[in-house]
Specification:
By secondary structure, the chain is α+β, with helices and mostly antiparallel strands. It has one domain (about 1-135): 2-Layer Sandwich (Alpha-D-Glucose-1,6-Bisphosphate, Chain A, domain 4), CATH 3.30.530.20. The chain is built from three helices and seven strands, in the order E-H-H-E-E-E-E-E-E-H. The protein has a seven-stranded antiparallel sheet with strand order 1-7-6-5-4-3-2. Helix 1 (about 15-20) packs across helix 3 (about 115-135). The chain is globular, with a radius of gyration of 14 Å.
Length: about 140
């Protein structure tokens, strides 16, 4: 099952692309709620390159690595990757009235209900949009 989330970011395309792929920015926006944060991020943005974001509860009670391998990179337009558990994700960046539409489509996992997954990924994407717009 595929799940899609999207947001419209009111910013220049280059700024949106850079914020998505820069470890400093990723650490600032990559969380689904105030009680989590990303403590580390690495990005090797090329086909065959890898990425990793260390996500942890702020109280230190739990954490995990979100990681994978890039399978397709079209600068400014699209990124595809395979997560470490084999699921695949496509991220599309398209200019639209009012900014850049960012759309993520990902393979659902079997542990949590699809709506829970959609809400979590949407929350992270909403944080991304707020981060980019706040930076101008």
């Amino acid at each position: 099952m595929k799940i899609t989330v999207e947001t419209l970011v009111n910013a220049a395309p280059d700024r949106v692309w850079d914020a998505w792929n820069t470890p400093e920015d990723i650490r600032a926006w990559n969380s689904a709620g105030e009680d989590w944060h990303t403590t580390e991020s690495t990005v090797d943005l090329r086909e065959g390159g890898t990425f990793r974001s260390r996500m942890e509860a702020k109280d230190g009670s739990e954490g995990f690595d979100f990681e994978g391998t890039y399978t397709r990179v079209v600068p400014g337009r699209a990124i595809e990757y395979r997560m470490s558990d084999g699921r695949e994700v496509t991220v599309e960046f398209a200019e639209a009235p009012g900014g850049v539409r960012v759309r993520e489509t990902f393979d659902a996992e079997n542990e949590f209900p699809p709506e829970f997954q959609r809400q979590g990924w949407q929350a992270i994407l909403d944080n991304f949009g707020r981060h980019v717009q706040a930076k101008g």
